[in-house]
Amino acid sequence: MTSTIQPARTQDWAKCVLHTAQGFEPTPLPVLAGAIPAGLLGSLYRNGPARLERSGQRVAHWFDGDGAVLGIHFSQNGATGVYRYVKTEAYLVEEKADRFLFWGYGMKPTGSWIERFTRDVKNAANTSVLALPDRVLALWEGGPPHALTLDTLNTLGIDELQGLHRLPYSAHPKRDPLTGEIFNFGISPGKNATLHVYRSDSTGKIQKKGAIALQGVPPIHDFVLAGKYLIFCIPPVRLSPLPVLIRLKSYSDGLEWHPELGTQILIIDRDTLEVVNSIEADSWYQWHFANGYEQPAGSVFISLVRYADFQTNQNLKEVASGQIKTPGKGTLWELRLDPASGKMLEMTEVMNRGCEFPTVNSQEVGQAWRYSYLSVRHRDKADDDDDLFGAIARFDHQTGTFTETNIGNHFYPSEPIYAADTDKPDQGWLLTVVYDAIQDRSEVWIYNSNRLEDAPVCRLGLPEVIPLGFHGTWKPGR
Q: Strand, helix or coil at 347?
């Protein structure tokens, strides 16, 4: 069954989130202000739920919207944009029927009892992207990726990466900039879930797989590459399977918070894909990591956005209604672990401002880094639990300095993506897709990564509103 929640009060951001995207063909983008940096050459890809409604029925959770990928291609001749739905098998079936039919993260299947028990889980392909040399992958952690063409974003179909064999492939792969290797994982449910860990070459082809038994069925959304280790934080959330199996609850509604379990930290060797050690820690929940690295003495330093509990899931569910009632504040933390002894050495909150979507320069993934880039609540709405992120920021892990953009209350930027300048190695740009609620339009804003307090160096117009989404990536070009 589907939700028909209607918002009691329209928020500024709701017009964007609830907009059903049409998509557009490759289109030259007008420069609205400033100029495109000469050294910004390559492609920005972003993914997110672009349709939350069909025939008056609204999805039950923000995570259930149909995925659409935005591509912004920068060349010597300017910028071109293209925006297309990922045409998965389930998307095409529902498009023809003009109604929701399948299982999802927060959705239960529709139809007769027989249909409800026999319908598959819908791969929404709506969470993130991975740019490979000859294609881009639309990622959704409950299933395999879908391949798209790099230029026009036409859907090519499910991509098995020459060895996935229908196993799930998470939305947060990590690419080692030194070796080109790509690491990722997937969770197979059961009485006890299995954590599948993958190592691929630079083309995406899977070279090695590992399988680790877990206790119960916990949700794991992200992990971190830290030198020679892969670090997973397993939250104290477990699926109550019976109500889900008999179709009384969705997967999301079957997840329960069990703080008595604590958080388990798994430390995995990146070469063998086997567990080196595990650490029992306090209870928290996290969606995303910023980065991690191995320190000279052998300890591991990681940074993540931490939540006190699992209320964040209800908070994100309510986004799909256009009105948020449940608080869900995450803050930036730093942890230091000892893989040899299996001990937590330090755990410190370093920024109390509500934030999410931490990113770093892709050339620093798995290595020592200084700056993390984040989505944050606007300074004037820092305590507004019903608002979405209204600024982007940079956190300096060396000095503890926090720098943010200075934009108005009615603007909603997406996750900041770092793009290195092709001509100046020390120069970086931050790209974000911004929704202007006053004009009801979307734009691409380009910031100097070292001057976030200044106005964007360039603003590009987009042909239609791009519903607020989740994750993106930068593919360098020449």
A: strand
Q: Are 78 and 28 in contact (CB under 8 A)?
A: yes
Distance CA 352, CA 136 (A): 35
Structure tokens that stand for 114 in this block = 């027989």
- Answer yes or no: is pLDDT of 115 > 90: no
List Cα–Cα distances, 93 to 7, 87, 186, 267, 278, in angstroms. Answer: 28, 10, 25, 41, 44
β pairing state of 391-396 and 371-376: antiparallel
Q: Is 357 left (phi over 0), alpha (psi -120 to 50) or beta?
A: left
Q: What is the mean pLDDT of residues 59-77?
A: 97
CB 312 within 8 A of CB 61: no
The residue to which tokens 């410190």 are assigned: 348
Domains of the chain: 14-476 (2.120.10.30)
**Mind giving me the DSSP string for 253-269?**
TTEEE-GGG-EEEEEEE
Which tops the pLDDT comparison, 119 or 19? 19
Looking at the DSSP bridge assignments, the partners of residue 85 are 68
Question: Taking all residues of the chain, what is their mean pLDDT, rounded to a whole number?
Answer: 94
Close Cβ partners of 24 (under 8 Å, ≥ 6 residues apart): 81, 82, 83, 463, 464
279, β-bridge pairs: 265
| Secondary structure letter of residue 388 according to DSSP | -
Flag whether pLDDT at 478 surpasses 80: no
pLDDT score of 6 more than 60: no
Q: Is the separation of the CB atoms in 193 and 214 below 8 Å? A: yes
CB 231, CB 264: distance < 8 Å: no
Say whether pLDDT at 380 is over 80: no
Q: Which of 423, 428, 474 is nearest to 451 (CA)?
A: 428
CA–CA separation, 478 and 476 (whole Å) = 7
Token pair listed for 324:
């948020």
| 3-state helix vs strand vs coil in the chain, percent to 5 | 10, 40, 50
